[in-house]
Amino acid sequence: MPIFARATLLLLALIPPAFAADAGADPYIWLEQVDSPEAMTWVRAENAKTLAVLEKDPRYEGFLKNASAIAQAQDRIPVPHIIHGQVYNFWQDADHVRGIWRHTSPLSYATAAPEWTTVLDLDAVALSEKANWVWKGADCEEPAELTCMVQLSDGGEDAVTIREFDLGGGRFAANGFTLPHGKQETAWENAKTLLVAREWAPGEMTKSGYPYVIKRLARGQPLASAQEIFRGKPDDVAVELLTLDDGAGHHANIIVRGLTTFESEYHLLTPAGVRKLALPLKIGVEAMVQGRVLVSLAQDWTVNGTSFVEGSLVALDLKALERHPSEPKPVLVYAPGARETFNSAAATRDSLIVTTLVNVQGRAAVYHPQPDGSFTHTPIALPDNSAIEIVDADRHGDSAFLDVTGFLQPTTLWSADVHRSTAASIKALEPKFDASRDVVHQFEAISTDGARIPYFVVHRSDMPLDGSNPTILDAYGGFQISSTPFYAGIMGKLWLERGGVYVLANIRGGGEFGPAWHEAGLKTHRQIIYDDFVAVARDLVARKITSPRRLGIEGGSNGGLLMGVQFTQHPELWNAVDIQVPLLDMLRFEQIAAGTSWVGEYGSVSVPEERAFLASISPYANLKRGVKYPEPFIWTTTKDDRVGPQHARKFAARLAEFGIPYLYYEVIEGGHGAGANLEERARTNALEMTYFTRKLMDN
C-alpha cells in the first residue's frame, strides 16, 4: 500500500463518531470540519510531506529570495485612494508585515519620494490587542466627515470586525461605531447614522452565509436597538449595501437584494422609505456623476420603446428615480461594438471615465454629460497592447488615476485630466526581470463548436518551435471576470527569465467579450469552457510551442475547478497541474462555505439535470484508480471562508486512497488567496515555481 494511503487510513481512525453516518457515502467528510483537531493534524502532516520535497529542492531558497524581494520591494507603486482631498495608501513591506495606512497630499504623491504620514499602524494595533488582524479596507464614503469604517479580519477570512476610525485624530474613534466579528458591511446614511447588513439574530443569514436584513444604526445606539429598514429572504444569495456620492452633493443609498448569483433587485432609500426600482435583474451600478446614476447592462433592456443591448452603459436621473422608481428613463452612454465590451467606470466632479476591452486589450475615454441628458466622449491616448484599469477618481476634482500594464511592460500609474481628455504617466514600476529577449503574441484556437478562443503567449523571441518549451497555461473562465494582460514580476523573474513560456487563455465563462461570452458556459453548458481550454492547449502543441511533457497548467478558485476538471478529463495533456484554492467537490459545493451563492454559475444538485451534469464534471467524483495522472500541486488556506479548504483537502485524501502521487499545501493563515501577508504570498509563489521547474524544466 502506498505511504500516502497508509497515512490517510491512520487518520481515518480519528474520525469522530458524529461523522460516522456520513462517512459511508464520503469517507473524507470529516475534513470539512475546518478547525477540528483531527483535520488540522492531517493538514500539518500533509504540509510536512510537501515541504520536505519542495523546500529541500536546491532552487527553492533562490526562488524564495527573489520572490520576497519583488513582493516587498520599496519601489512598488503605492496604490492611491482619494479621501477628502488627500491620497491614502495601505502599505506592506518587511518592516510593516501587517501594514500601515498612510496619507500624503496629491502634489507630494506625484513626486518620486512622497512624504507620508502614518494614520494607522496595523502591526502595532495587532500587537497591543493580541489579535491576528488583516486589513480588509475602509469605507470613507461621504457624507461622513473625516471618519471611516475600518474593516479588520481575523487571519484573512471574509468575516470582519468593523470599527469607526477618526482620520483627523489618527485613532479609532472614542465611543464610535463598533460592529463585532461577522460577515457584514456598512454604508453611511449621514454623518450620524449607518446602514448595517449583518447577522442580527442567530441564524439570520442566507443559505450562502451572508446577511439579508438591513438596519439603521444611530451613533451611540446599541446594536439591539437598531431599526430594521429592509428584509430579504433566507433563500436570497445576499442583501448588500451600495452608496453613491458625486461632486455636486448628490447622495444615494441603494440596497441590492441578490436573488441569484447574477440577478438582483435594486431598492433606493428615499425620504419616503425604501422603494424598489424597476430595473432589469442583471445589471451593475457603477458610479454617479451630476446626479446621474450609471448602470451597466448584462442583459438586453427595452423601456419606453427604446432598446439597449447587453454590455451597454446607461444613465438614470437620481431625482427622477426618487420620484418615480417604477418609471426609469435611461439614456445611452456607451454601446459595445464587435469583440468589444464595457469594463469599468468612475466619476470625477463633472465627468465620467470609462474603460473598455477591444479584443482583450484596454481602452479608456472621458464621457461628458450634456445639458440635454446625453453624453459626448473623447478617447484618452494610452499605450497599446495593455490592460487599463481605473484605480480611483476624485469626485471633487478633475483627475483620476489609471493603472496601465502589460506582460512585459512594468505597471505604470497615469494621472488623467478629464477636462483635457489627456493622461500622463506619473509613476512607473522598476522592471523586475529582464524582458529584453521576450515578445508577446496573441493567437486564436478553434473550440469544439467553432468559436474563436483568443490567447496570449509570452516567450523568448528566439523560442524554438520544436515542442520543447516549458510552458504554463493559465485561465479562469467564470463569473464574467476578464483575464487581461498584467505585469507579474515574480513570474517573469522565476519563469520567463529562465526560458519558460507563459500563456493566458481567454476562454468562455469570462467577460472578455461581454455577457454572452460568460453565459455561453453557465450551468449545464459549462463543458464548453473546459473544451475551450483544451482547444488552446492543443493549439499550443500544434504550433510546436510546447508538448504535453513540457506543458503545465494553473488556476485558482473557479480556475481551480477548471484545473481539477482538466486533471480528470485530460490527464494525458499535462505534466504539471497547479490547483489553487479550488472548488473540487461539485456535488457538495452548496454545503461548503459560500457555495450556495454560486448556484447561478454552476447549477444545483437539487435540479436533476444539473446534478447529473455536476456529477459528470466534479473532479472529486471523477478520480479513477489505475489512471496515469500527472502529480498535481494542490494548495489552499485554512482561513478561506469563501470557497473553503474542504475541497482541496478531500481531493488530496482521495488521491492518497487511490495511491496517486500528489503534493498538498495549506497556508494556515490567509483568506481566499496565497496568504495573509507579502511574506506568506512570496513563499507560496516560490513553492509553485519550484514545482513547475521540477515538472517542466528538469529532465
Q: Layout of helices and strands, plus pairs?
A:
Elements: H1 3-12, H2 20-23, H3 37-54, H4 60-71, E1 81-83, E2 86-93, E3 96-104, H5 106-109, E4 117-121, H6 122-129, E5 133-139, E6 147-154, E7 160-166, E8 171-172, E9 178-182, E10 185-190, E11 193-197, E12 213-218, E13 227-231, E14 238-245, E15 251-258, E16 264-270, E17 273-276, E18 283-289, E19 292-297, E20 301-303, E21 306-308, E22 313-317, H7 318-323, E23 331-334, E24 340-347, E25 352-358, E26 361-369, E27 375-379, E28 387-393, E29 399-405, E30 412-417, E31 422-428, E32 438-446, E33 452-460, E34 471-474, H8 489-494, E35 501-505, H9 515-519, H10 527-542, E36 551-556, H11 558-569, E37 576-580, H12 599-602, H13 608-617, H14 619-622, E38 632-637, H15 646-657, E39 663-667, H16 678-697
Parallel strand pairs: 34-35, 34-36, 36-37, 37-38, 38-39
Antiparallel strand pairs: 1-2, 2-3, 3-4, 5-6, 6-7, 7-8, 7-9, 10-11, 11-12, 12-13, 14-15, 15-16, 16-17, 18-19, 19-22, 20-21, 22-23, 24-25, 25-26, 26-27, 28-29, 29-30, 30-31, 32-33, 33-35
Helix pairs in contact: 1-15, 4-16
